[in-house]
């Protein structure tokens, strides 16, 4: 029997369809393709990237969004096992799990994708250029009828929009079609038709994403009528350097810089029509406010909000920074009216201040923090996929199977499941991939192909024979740079055997020509003077490998971005600079050496550390995918915190779930459970690790290929508010146990007071434990259900019931739970008066203190890291946050990876989270681990640091500076750098006093050759 | 290069030795490393140190600049670059602007370049510390510190009378800077020596032939004809 309860004697199809090419769908596709599964990635829009590519920066690190997402786009585009089907939609899915039959409609772009080189000439000459509202710029910028969505689009091809193109709107002959006439490769064809494709897949992942709320529906806010009222995504485009104003924040009405900006939160969230919180708006508004301040430090910014929902990793610190360092004001209020001042087009906001006064304030610009809604066509998609939607219109899933849809074999991820941010989208993307892998892993490697190359030609000892090809890029380069003279100049340079120009170096036919010339002239090095190596280097280095030349013998000069684009008005200088860049590239090319990657075998077993819900889920997922697992648990039995919890928010009993999980783990032949064991050391590297564990019987060493860290966390217990001194003071966990185990006792209680954010973690400079608001309200509702007359007070700073948990908040209020708010520094006071507990807090409505006598005081104490992380982290050589949770490789795009490859993290070890979230993240860790374990061999080496041992003085500099902690001093007292582990950053190379380390492909000479060639005439 | 962490102190000094009037290093924005490398902090410290070295030999430290920006900040890149070029032009050609004689400058730069391995070794702890606070930049390496670092630079010298020509130091010297031979008193080629102290460490204690000199001139090498070791009976 297969997991998911599917009986199938036939092997499943070794392919998966992913619907939706946003960050979540891309992550799922990459993980599947890296595990030997063929992927069909179906995206309805012309380009991949979803919403993330529109962002300027990402919270809470203010990382540039494009910079971090572009490499993912390129990875997807270049992966031979991912078949990209953009501008396409699913028509139907028949069959069953393991063997689905899918019909897909590929909409025509009226552009032959095989011919189009993405030069953008059609967009430049389109008569509608600059007249059609650009989706990418959220209407703030304009495109033509022929267009490329954005500079980094994948695929980088043009699309002709029939809704605006004159040939379609007015009929044949109504436009001279300059696009078609000017298209170099003759890629435009107005006769093209939509086509239908049928594919077979074993599983489907639905990642259709979300749409932003249409703010015109909130008429009172004036969006669409008042020019200076923008949505958050429009504001984001203004902030972006690639946006319509090139990164200047300007008022649409007069192109003036705004001095005073208001952000209005919860537009299309937490209202009558949306009974959920969109989870991301508090943080993105905080980010946009901070960025606006960075653009113009004098700007006065107010954020009008109800609660600040800073519930994720690093969010609270980010919010504090916004308030304290950037002086952004947070006003707790939903404004009562917003009006435009006709003369200035500024906006007048009327609101009630926290001390109860009605104020009116004028703002130059208002930004609406629009919420997430299910994509408009998601209903249709769900019908075609045969899956059910929730009442809110998102995907219907279950708390214990958070990524499974109602139809077996179809999984969901990203904000289709629930409003979520980028790391959660990436996490669920990987998690859904794990679920699909469990289903189809038996057919791994059946449909993927590995490229075959001819044997490599040994060119060692040969003089450099360099070919230089100067690309016109249509008119992109040749329109400014005199490419012919650049090629002529190049032909004079030492080592150059052949130099010529080419219209589009990257076009398929020219690649063929290039290969022929390589052979004809016996070239052993290639220099391409064209565009960016970021997008095109892999293509060209692969091309030379196809004719038997080592792929490292390639060098690129970016004469498009760095010459024709930036010096478009000075063609002579642009041409001169192109010659400089080509001379530099040729100089380096002369010194290039062939480099070889080594293949290493991979141990396909994994170690999972921690036997709670996350660890067990990860272990089961890996076993379901066919890998052996060692599950190492410190305690005598599995289950972790699950044994302490009693019931979920929806009232479901946890025990049957725990019991079945433990039973499935214990009975799985592929899982070796080792209890009462601790990890003391880890040596080796990706694919070949050795872990030392200590168990009651002694010590043993396990050989394995990857590690999943799932060591969990625990509820904080301290001495605050008489805890431990008075038996009527409990923590939330203790209350939950009491409610479940002694209901009679609870039913008698009359007055219950809950204080949120107790303990050091929630104090200023701390972190939010994410789950406690919801947990408290869950328990509060339970008490109200058991005894409707009981008074339940919740004293909190904010109520952070994000996503669908908002419904718990709504329910608590409707059941009569009373909420009081306190501010940091004005915490409620608790004292014992006549044997009873008396709590004094501030009433934020009456603005005066209230005293409450409680029969039960419940402290919401948050989650702290598991004990022992400080010992485990150095043993695994992975970092911790200052709070003691494990620190992932990249907070946004690598939420379950560590920087050290082959080690992954999930569950509370990463950060506090709900059980459903722990399960999703555990699946994600399993999928990421599978990308290592499923490979028969790993390729290592290439551009890595190599120690010349004879020169090493053993001074330890490299050992100290390496950010990855790779160099070791061996028995001979000299440094050794493991090829499989080195990332090739070169830091040790620069700091080695004895010059004993060289970075391959970036040797001293190869680096300085370029600088010297640049100044050849000067020196 | 892959990361500004790869910028070698030697590259910077080499550029000035080659007659460059200014050197400009540009890396990713601090704290925005896409990996965990954060190599730009290494580059920053290296640049701050280099500036003091320039000052030490009488050059204007403004000639070396480091800045951090993202690929999206093209306009800023152009502005910062133009600004830097303007500043350097105002300073005039290297050395001339500072009133240092050309030959003297050459000697001074060559002297400093010889010390690069030693400087890296001595300052290796400090070079790796990420400076989160801009205000620390100026005071992180002080001129006095660099002056005394150069003034008190160590040298290693083999005392001819004590050397027993065992060849241990020569074999272990990572820079291959020890002239040795069987029964030949060993001599450190000061030009090649990287001052790592390996010879001092490995010279057998019973010989104790290597000595560490700090800020003093190294005695001239023993003439070749007197290098044959005469062993006492």
Strands of the widest sheet of chain B, in order across it, are 1-2
Q: How many domains is the backbone of chain A divided into?
A: 7
Q: Separation of termini of chain B?
A: 60 Å
Characterize the largest beta sheet of chain B: strand count, sense, and whether it forms a barrel.
2 strands, parallel
Amount of beta strand of chain B = 5-15%
Outline the low-pLDDT stretches of chain A: 1-7
Oligomer: heterodimer
The CATH architecture of the largest domain in chain A can be named as 3-Layer(bba) Sandwich
The residue fraction in helices of chain A comes out at: 25-40%
Order of helices and strands of chain B: HEHEHHHHHHEHEEHE
CATH homology-level superfamily of the largest domain in chain A: FAD/NAD(P)-binding domain
> How many angstroms does the end-to-end distance of chain A come to?
74 Å
CATH class of the largest domain in chain A: Alpha Beta
The CATH topology assignment of the largest domain in chain A is FAD/NAD(P)-binding domain
Most extensive protein-chain contact, per-chain counts: A-B, 53 and 48 residues
Structural class of chain A: alpha/beta
Write the layout of secondary structure elements.
The complex is a heterodimer of chains A (1019) and B (233).
Chain A (H helix, E strand, L loop, with lengths): L14 E5 L3 H12 L3 E6 L13 E2 L4 E2 H14 L3 E5 L1 E9 L2 E8 L14 H5 L6 E2 L8 E2 L2 E2 L11 E2 L5 H4 L8 H5 L12 E7 L1 E4 L3 E3 L16 E3 H8 L20 E8 L13 H15 L4 E6 L9 H10 L4 E4 L4 E5 L4 E7 L5 E6 L1 E6 L1 E3 L3 H8 L24 E3 L9 H19 L25 E6 L11 H9 L4 E7 L5 H13 L4 E6 L2 H14 L7 E5 L1 H6 L5 H20 L6 E5 L4 E4 L3 H12 L4 E4 L22 H13 L3 E4 L3 E8 L2 E8 L2 E7 L1 E4 L3 E3 L13 E3 H10 L1 H5 L3 E5 L16 H15 L4 E6 L9 H9 L3 E4 L7 E5 L2 E8 L4 E7 L1 E4 L3 E3 L3 H8 L26 E3 L9 H19 L3 E5 L3 E3 L9 H5 L6 E2 L5 E2 L10 H5 L5 E3 L4 H11 L5
Helix pairs in contact in A: 1-2, 1-10, 1-23, 6-7, 7-8, 10-16, 10-23, 11-15, 12-13, 15-26, 16-17, 16-23, 18-20, 20-21
Chain B lengths: L8 H9 L5 E5 L11 H18 L7 E5 L5 H18 L10 H13 L1 H7 L1 H4 L8 H5 L2 H9 L2 E5 L9 H5 L5 E4 L2 E5 L9 H5 L7 E5 L19
